[in-house]
Write a structure and sequence with these properties.
With 293 residues, this protein is mostly helical. Helices cover 73% and strands 0% of the residues. The chain is built from ten helices and no strands. Helix 4 packs antiparallel against helix 5 and helix 9 crosses helix 10. About 8% of the residues have low confidence.
Length: 293
């Protein structure tokens, strides 16, 4: 007997239909078998559920171990992983509110891919935060500098990840591939926003606990408050770069930009231009320091 179903494979409706048909088959012939894509996928879900859960747990544990040795901290690895896992939770929860069925392998694939490919956004910001904290900046100053320094790189990486997979999601006719790429594209954006808005709050909130349970965040004798002799790393602060450019403007090095709103450039665009060029110069200085390190 050939049975056609209107339900999509791996959905609750299709699985309930398979159970109902199997119950009818058992009443007539206990040796009868129901075969096809929907029964095969349902059996696959049942047999691989434990394996998928273990893969997820192992991935998180391994990343925590790596971050523990990198940051030499008990708290920081959990904050970084928690930030990304919150983004994963939002990503996997959206299909429920969008009434969009989710393929059965999506949770394990997306959680591991999104965690492994976007946790570096959080690592980038946390590394800068640790560097400024060790240099003597306060927690607010360290978070501000870390966010300002990491923002262009994080946004660029997230946008690149999104652009790389969104095309496959839109044009692929294979439902499994299209669905997974949709999750990855959406996850890249959600992880980017999570790192930019949630991680700074975590760093501010748990700063005291971080510096007390970590090595390399404070110098010997520091109590965590800003030091008077604090000197920002090259490229860490935009204020001194903006001030240097303003001195050049006053000296006539770049007559097209002035401190105050001119006839052609108002104060808002002057400030925006200063911060934008400061970011560019800060990145160049940071790359130059890495190259000579």
């Amino acid at each position: 007997i050939i049975i056609n179903s209107k339900y999509r494979v791996s959905t609750d409706e299709a699985n309930d239909q398979v159970d109902a048909i199997n119950a009818i088959l058992d009443d007539y012939d206990p040796d009868a078998m129901l075969i096809g894509e929907a029964p095969a996928v349902k059996d696959l879900i049942a047999t691989t559920d434990f394996d998928f859960r273990m893969v997820d747990y192992v991935a998180i544990i391994l990343i925590l171990i790596i971050l523990f040795f990198v940051f030499r901290s008990l708290i920081m690895p959990f904050l970084l992983v928690l930030t990304i896992m919150l983004a994963v939770m939002v990503n996997l929860g959206l299909p429920y509110y969008m009434d969009d069925p989710m393929v059965f392998i999506a949770p394990v694939c997306i959680s591991t891919i999104q965690l492994g490919s976007t946790v570096n956004y959080a690592i980038l910001m946390a590394t800068r935060y640790r560097r400024e904290r060790y240099a003597g900046a306060g927690k607010r100053g360290s978070v501000t500098i870390a966010m300002g320094h990491s923002l262009p790189s994080i946004v660029t990486s997230g946008a690149s990840f999104f652009s790389a997979v969104i095309g496959v999601s839109v044009y692929s006719n294979v439902e499994l591939i299209s669905s997974l790429c949709t999750f990855m594209a959406r996850g890249a954006l959600i992880s980017t926003l999570s790192v930019l808005f949630i991680l700074p709050a975590f760093l501010m909130l748990f700063d005291g606990l971080i510096v007390k349970t970590s090595k390399g965040f404070l110098r010997a004798g520091d109590d965590g408050s800003p030091r008077d002799d604090y000197q920002p790393h090259a490229g860490s602060s935009t204020e001194h770069i903006v001030e240097k450019r303003r001195r050049k403007h006053r000296a006539g090095v770049n007559p097209g930009i002035s401190d105050t709103a001119g006839s052609n450039v108002n104060a808002f665009w002057t400030k925006a231009y200063s911060h934008f060029t400061a970011w560019l110069e800060a990145r160049k200085m940071a790359q130059r320091n890495v190259r000579f390190a």
